[in-house]
Write a sequence for this structure.
């Protein structure tokens, strides 16, 4: 699940009520599900494999949860992934894009399927009170210290990846082709996928370009609910830093200074007009200032002020409009303060991602697989799932390739009883991503693993 990006993973209240209804109906569906799946020997095999591995997977999850690592710092987590993949018989590559890991499992002629799980955590203090809660505090790049936790479910993503990788190695009779698993760093700052590709994922490190890319993300809806939909699912995003430069001085003599804090404050207010007055109101776009950093003393005007901006968009023309608008506002403020050109604000473009657009055919295949495990009223589809302003860099693992076919879907990880109580209390959710009380119910570990396996096996039935 970090900035506000993953909070948009959360579905609308109306959809959440649908998922809650699904959970209430789960018991009623139990016999029906059994009838549908009892003749499916493949599902029986999956249930047996995952069932025998569940206790071990839960322990892996708890360990990763208790030892979270920020983006590009995931050395311990990456080592766990590499060790487990090697033990399962994969050809493992490490150090891709600093801390990325990839494993290759060849099994004859057939499609090349890639599965991605992100590994990084959030700079959030955990408040769950779990016996395996994170108590870690880390030093960040700027020298500051911050408590960290997995508040977006990436610990579950890594565990699902490991469970999936093990199962695929034991089920070679069920598929033909090449299976690749990728432990990706730094999803939170939207940098990791591009970092792996630019570091030679498909060249220097020898990973085959996939025909299909798959992945899942946790969602704070009940365990047993899955969201699978084709088309544009998530917005594009940009992370931008703007440094306003001025002339520092004593707070008692502001006329002798050029105050960058005042410039930054003026810019923050003017930025909002870009969306409200320049972007077509029938189109979705968001411009958020998530951080302002300047000065340290009451009586000192600093020389610089830093603004951290996040953009969300679906139309690249709107993206360009917002970026150009920010630049013009910055320069206009600098001009009004009579700053020399060398003190004009600096813009730094950081992580970015294009809108995520799930392939129709691949999504249909995933749906076919998941339907073998769950009844339809526990699977949310396009009509229940409007596109969200949240963003991902998952698809940037393939977006520069000739073939860029992918599907990204969601798996519920909230305890159904906790979710039910939250609804009863008038809440939309029991907890949100990037909050200290974010919690993965342990029953979601085997369930998510099965959902992953079924999606991948069905993808292998598609033509190369």
């Amino acid at each position: 699940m970090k900035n506000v990006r993953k909070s948009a993973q959360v579905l609308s209240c109306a959809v959440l009520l649908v998922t809650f209804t699904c959970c209430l109906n789960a018991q009623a569906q139990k016999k029906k599900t059994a009838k549908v799946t009892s003749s499916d020997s493949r599902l029986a095999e999956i249930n047996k494999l995952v069932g025998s591995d569940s206790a071990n997977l839960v322990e892996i999850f708890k360990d990763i949860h208790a030892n979270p690592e920020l983006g590009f710092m995931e050395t311990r987590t990456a080592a766990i992934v590499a060790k487990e993949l090697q033990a399962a018989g994969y050809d493992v590559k490490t150090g891709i894009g600093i801390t990325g890991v990839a494993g290759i499992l060849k099994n004859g002629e057939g499609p090349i399927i890639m599965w991605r799980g992100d590994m990084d955590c959030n700079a959030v203090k955990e408040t769950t009170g779990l016996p395996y809660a994170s108590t870690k505090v880390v030093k960040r790049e700027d020298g500051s210290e911050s408590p960290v936790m997995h508040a977006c479910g990436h610990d579950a993503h890594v565990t699902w990846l490991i469970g999936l990788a093990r199962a695929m190695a034991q089920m070679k009779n069920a598929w033909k082709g090449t299976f690749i698993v990728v432990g990706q760093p730094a999803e939170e700052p939207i940098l990791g996928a591009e970092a792996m590709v630019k570091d030679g994922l498909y060249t220097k490190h020898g990973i085959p370009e996939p025909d299909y890319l798959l992945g899942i993300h946790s969602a704070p809806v009940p365990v047993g609910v899955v969201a699978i939909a084709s088309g544009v699912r998530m917005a594009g995003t940009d992370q931008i830093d703007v440094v306003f430069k001025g002339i520092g001085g004593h707070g008692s003599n502001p006329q002798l200074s050029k105050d960058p804090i005042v410039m930054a404050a003026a810019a923050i207010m003017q930025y909002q007009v870009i969306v409200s007055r320049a972007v077509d109101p029938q189109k979705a776009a968001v411009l958020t200032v998530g951080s302002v950093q300047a000065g340290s003393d009451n009586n000192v005007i600093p020389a610089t002020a830093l603004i951290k901006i996040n953009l969300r968009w679906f139309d690249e023309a709107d993206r360009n409009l917002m970026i150009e608008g920010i630049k013009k506002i910055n320069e206009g403020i600098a001009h009004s303060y009579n700053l020399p050109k060398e003190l004009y604000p600096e813009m730094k473009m950081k992580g970015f991602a294009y809108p995520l657009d799930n392939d129709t055919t691949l999504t249909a295949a995933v749906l076919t697989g998941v339907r073998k495990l769950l009844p339809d009223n526990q699977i949310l589809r396009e009509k229940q799932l409007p596109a969200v302003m949240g963003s991902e860099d998952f698809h940037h693992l393939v977006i520069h390739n000739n073939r860029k076919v992918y599907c990204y879907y969601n798996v519920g990880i909230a305890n159904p009883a906790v979710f039910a109580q939250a609804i009863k209390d008038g809440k939309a959710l029991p907890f949100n991503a990037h909050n200290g009380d974010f919690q993965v119910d342990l029953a979601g570990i085997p369930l998510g693993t099965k959902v992953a396996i079924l999606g991948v096996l069905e993808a292998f039935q598609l033509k190369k």
